[in-house]
Fold this protein.
Amino acid sequence: MYQGDIIFFNDMITDNPIKLVYNKGEQPSQQKSVGRTSSYWPDNIVFYEIDALLPDQARVTDAISHWEANTAVKFVQRSGESNYVYFTPGSGCSSCVGMVGGRQNITLASGCSTGNTIHEIGHAVGLWHEQSRVDRDSYVTINFENIASGAEHNFRTYEESGYDGDEFTSTLDFGSIMMYSSYSFSNNGQSTIVKLDGSTYSAQRSGLSTDDKAGIDSMYPGETGGGGTVSPPPTEPEPTPTEPEPTNPEPTNPEPTYINGEYYTIAGLTVLRKKDKWLYKKDRGGWQEVELIDGTWYNVN
Ligand SMILES: [Zn+2]
């Protein structure tokens, strides 16, 4: 399977009626969407539980702190509620979109950072990927010829995938934490999403953007910073992500061709192209094969 199972588990819950990822040949269902227009969490409260087996649980608590400091969404540890988010280890970073009922998993592989967790929580409260906006063709060009086989569905609009939704900001936000990078799901190291002028852009997985917050405020209006009777100071600083995702450098060539034996710096990491794979030199020496997924490098085992 190309690039292992991460692609097919990214944003995917196999046991769930709401799917964002499909196997090749499978037709997307035409069911009612939960994204952005319905299936919000009532009273702005997301109940959650953390799997005791999940490593580095600060990723979750830091991400929750970020959401609570910047939005009116509150996160409450579950005590018997039937609808809740369950943070658990998995093969990639994944989530359902919106509240789907019952237990819904957010899976976090070891490579998923605090920023990735903020992104997955975005899905769980109802956000699609930013490049899935219905009007995205007014802002970006999708280079389908560079997309890994089987990953094309990640580049459809939610409407094309059979879901409904809504846009809460007037323009596509390249700075959204829900925006894919220019090289997401590339099969050849070349760009999959570019601006209309052909240029690439930097994606971020550090925190909610100004427009992210504006959209979420429309979906979950209320007092930012916990709301209710508990009012933490609104100036509460955002937590520093433990693993901020490096942004993509501006490429010197908009359509780079990678040559075996050459070094490149992509997404903050200096990597060696060898036999059409990527390697980087570990601190203690030795080489590790890696792959770039959604703007983040992952180890290949
Ligand atoms: Zn996502």
